[in-house]
Amino acid sequence: MSDGSLGPAAQQAVEAFDVLIVGAGISGIGGAYHLTKQCPGTSFVVLETLESFGGTWLTHRYPGIRSDSDLYTFGYRFKPWTSAPIATRAEIMTYLGEVIEENCLAAHFRYGHRVLQASWSSQDKNWAIEAVRTATGETVRFTANFLWMCQGYYRQLDPYTPDWPGLADFKGTVVHPMTWPEDLDYKGKNVVVIGSGATAATLIPAIAEDCGHVTMLQRSPTFYRAARNSIPIADELRDLGVDETWIHEIVRRRILRDQDVFTRRTFTEPEATKNELLAAARHHLGPDYDIDTHFTPRYRPWRQRIAYIPDGDFYKSIAAGKASVVTDEIERFDATGIQLKSGQHLDPDIVVTATGFHLNALGDIDFRIDGKPLVFADTVTYRGMMFTGVPNMAWVFGYFRASWTLRADLVADFVCRLLNHMKARQARMVLPALRPEDAGMKLLPWIDAENFNPGYLLRGIHLLPKRGDKPEWAHTQDHWAEKDALPAIDLDDAAFRYA
Predict the structure, then answer these.
(1) Cβ atoms 86, 234 nearer than 8 A
(2) CATH architecture of the domain covering 161-355
(3) Where are the domains positioned within the chain?
(4) Per-residue DSSP letter, 284
(5) Alpha helices in 216-306 (DSSP H)
(6) Which of 39, 96, 106, 304 has its CA 20 to 30 A from that of 197?
(7) Rounded to an integer, what distance in angstroms lies between the CA atom of residue 468 and that of residue 434?
(8) Interval 394-428: pLDDT, tens
(9) Is the entire prediction scored with pTM above 0.85?
(10) Are 44 and 108 in contact, with CB atoms under 8 Å apart?
(11) Predicted confidence (pLDDT) per residue in 116-170, tens digit
(12) Architecture of the domain spanning 7-156+359-498
């Protein structure tokens, strides 16, 4: 028995594939598409824990859920987006379903399959995968030469809620947006939403009209960007009868250029960009609103994600008096509500904890390399896609400041090119490894906290691989540079060891 075998399940039938994709969200669906187009003849399967495709867009069902990136860039480059740039959950699920149907991908997907273990054998040059069918508890086994991790980076059904003193004493209802009850009745109720990120800014305007009142309770402010949910150049090109494929590409390029310019300005002109964002808040909330207290963060723009507010709907709920903001810290919960450190007491019927999620780097899968447990944090990342000491595996981790799918497409191109290169070389294994010129390279955390520092990342950064101080050994978070750098990777560089 080789090091990659899985013991008790060994007598069961094993399905063999060239590539196994973990996850049927936006990355996994895109990966399946690119394999069929760029690596014809490659056998592959997509394993998904949930009952259908969609990932985040399947599990998240709270009122108002929508994209916080425009769909011209959050959508795939190969399928034009033809509606408003900020899309609803239903619109995104329809779009993803069309990708699967139009490209005959459904037969490759196995839903209700949770991967338990992935074990690499250098002897067999294969991954042995053990999964369980969630409906029956039956163990199933697969082998694959290449493993493509598209499972995302947080636990879908295990949200993060701080351990506030007295929370168990509260007699009202406590819910988290990630596990929103379909039968929750909030009509006429007083609701406190704890948190100020994109989820809070999305949820509040969606429920405010029906609630008695909604209070957003934040420890500190967040930057928001308010703009119309339309793109004039796209509307004009449609009026001219321009083909949707052209419109998609033109608008994508325009958005990407504008985003790159703005992002770079947050580093070179932080005060100017800050004032631009705050000016939009003043426009909607009026000159007498306390912008300094409630909407002026302590950090420069883009050190944490900027939440997009289409048509200023979040601000409009506040201006209309249906919602309000309290900037304070929680001292404790009690039976009737929340005692704040300032002395103020909030008396909600419902508390919504929009407080983020738990980082989950490898999908809670037991990874082993030649029988030894993989400690992911001990590896060094190759451009945020592969990892030293881990053969034949790629991982999709998108951008913080741009649409996730932009990088999912780029990583897919890289993986497909790598697979074709291995085939041409008649190689069965590729292992990322530091080169002689990388000896002594300083190893650093996955991301520089001075660059980007949301709470979920800081809480879980010890779980992530190290980065180096060279572009090859870091996830740079710079799409504008990576769109040229990743396609230009020299696959015969010494960073890749083939066998």
Answers:
(1) no
(2) 3-Layer(bba) Sandwich (3.50)
(3) 7-156+359-498, 161-355
(4) H
(5) 232-239, 244-268, 270-285, 291-295
(6) 96
(7) 10
(8) 999 998 888 999 999 999 999 999 999 999 999 99
(9) yes
(10) yes
(11) 999 999 999 999 999 999 999 999 999 999 999 999 887 777 888 999 999 999 9
(12) 3-Layer(bba) Sandwich (3.50)
